[in-house]
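Escalated from tier 1: magnesium ion holo job.
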Amino acid sequence: MEKTFKMQAKSFKVFVTGFFNSGKSTLVHTLDNKAIHVEKKLKKAYDKEKTTTTTGIDLGRMVWVRPNLSYKTEGVIMSKTEFLRDKGEYLGWHVNNFELKGSPGQMQFSTVRKILAKGSDGVIFLIDGSDVPSIGNALVIMEDIKAVLGHKIPIKIIANKSDKEDYQGGEMISNLVGEQVYEGSGKFNIGVKDAIIAILKIIANSDNAENKTKLEAVV
Ligand SMILES: Nc1nc2c(ncn2[C@@H]2O[C@H](COP(=O)(O)OP(=O)(O)OP(=O)(O)O)[C@@H](O)[C@H]2O)c(=O)[nH]1
Ligand SMILES: [Mg+2]
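Tier 2 regenerated the structure:
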């Protein structure tokens, strides 16, 4: 029999949010260079480098592939485009589609953000680790998102832009937000996949919680 993939029925929805300039669109684009971005040009570049701001959505199409469905298995994530190119390497593996849905970060787009958040299975929350004063606004957004998705929604926080010289460090940010954060750089693809896989594992395991209990009871 021809060996193929085990396509999982469930497609996961991961919401990427945070305050203005935290690096949401950059992260989605780094992971899927064919991602859709609905944005507008800024009248004047922000911080010299930033020329656009998201007014609508960032949408990346991704897959999570795992050699088995053990809750300990990390697997790997990649864009759907990369997967279709290299799929021969993953014959026999389990494949979940998932979307990375980025939101606008400006406070004035709060309604758009809340509408986009609806139906998400988990959240990647970005904080600009080189801009500590932005944490106040970030925490307001965090509360808004929890109000939409419920306080039990899986959230992983990334202290982003760890490559920058003026990065303040994950420890300081962990202390400010009251939980351990991931450190990374969306621009240079450092650390961010770990946070996303952690979210996917929580979602998948909560999805399978009932089945897993049954299996464990049999064993
Ligand atoms: N050095 C560094 N710069 C980054 C990183 N991620 C994003 N940037 C820069 O930070 C700026 C903001 O990035 P965006 O991806 O537009 O941020 P955003 O969160 O989508 O912004 P809004 O949509 O306006 O809320 C850009 O100039 C990026 O090049 C990173 O990991 N390291
Ligand atoms: Mg953006």
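The helical segments are 24-31, 80-86, 110-117, 135-149, 170-177, 192-207, 209-218.
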